[in-house]
Amino acid sequence: MTVALYARRKSWPLEAVTVRLRHGRIHTTDCANCETKEGMIDRIERELEFVGPLTAEQRSKLLEIAEKCPVHRTLVSEIDIRTKVL
Predict the structure, then answer these.
(1) Using DSSP, how many helices (H) and how many strands (E) does the chain show?
(2) Which of 28, 68, 75, 83 yields a CA-CA distance of 20 to 30 A from 45?
(3) CA–CA separation, 62 vs 15, rounded Å?
(4) pTM of the model
(5) Alpha carbon of residue 11 to chain centroid
(6) Cβ neighbours of residue 32 closer than 8 Å, sequence gap 6 or more
(7) Is 2 exposed, middle or buried (0-12, 13-18, 19+ CB in 10 A)?
(8) Confidence tier at 20 by pLDDT (50, 70, 90)
(9) String of b and e for 51-84 (b: at least 16 CB within 10 Å)?
(10) What is the pLDDT of residues 32-78, one digit of tens each?
(11) Count of beta carbons in the 10 Å neighbourhood of residue 50
(12) Where are the domains of the chain?
């Protein structure tokens, strides 16, 4: 949604955005740039498809905007979940 809103505001010819995600768990030893060094971690593989006659520069900027969307920022940040049973 963030990408589509940005493209609309810029009047870019973005016709559709498709996001495909795959989730799995990997050993931390298979992740060279991970902070956690023991056990297993979650890995999400993301594919973005921008449909429309966009320039390479526009596609690059849309990828940059996708990295800043609220959902992406939440997923890559440290998360503290606190549960209360009522």
Answers:
(1) 3, 2
(2) 83
(3) 13
(4) 0.74
(5) 23
(6) none
(7) middle
(8) very high
(9) eeebeeebeebbeebbeeeeeeeeeeeeeeeeee
(10) 767 767 778 888 899 999 999 999 999 999 999 999 988 888 888 87
(11) 19
(12) 2-76
In this structure, the number of other CB atoms found within 10 A of the CB of residue 31 comes to 13
* Amino acid (1-letter code) at residue 71: V
Q: Which of 5, 7, 22, 18 is nearest to 59 (CA)?
A: 7
The first and second tokens of residue 19, run together, are 């996001």
What is the CA 4 to chain-centroid distance, rounded? 14
Structure tokens at 8: 């609309």
Q: Which residue has the tokens 């905007």?
A: 65
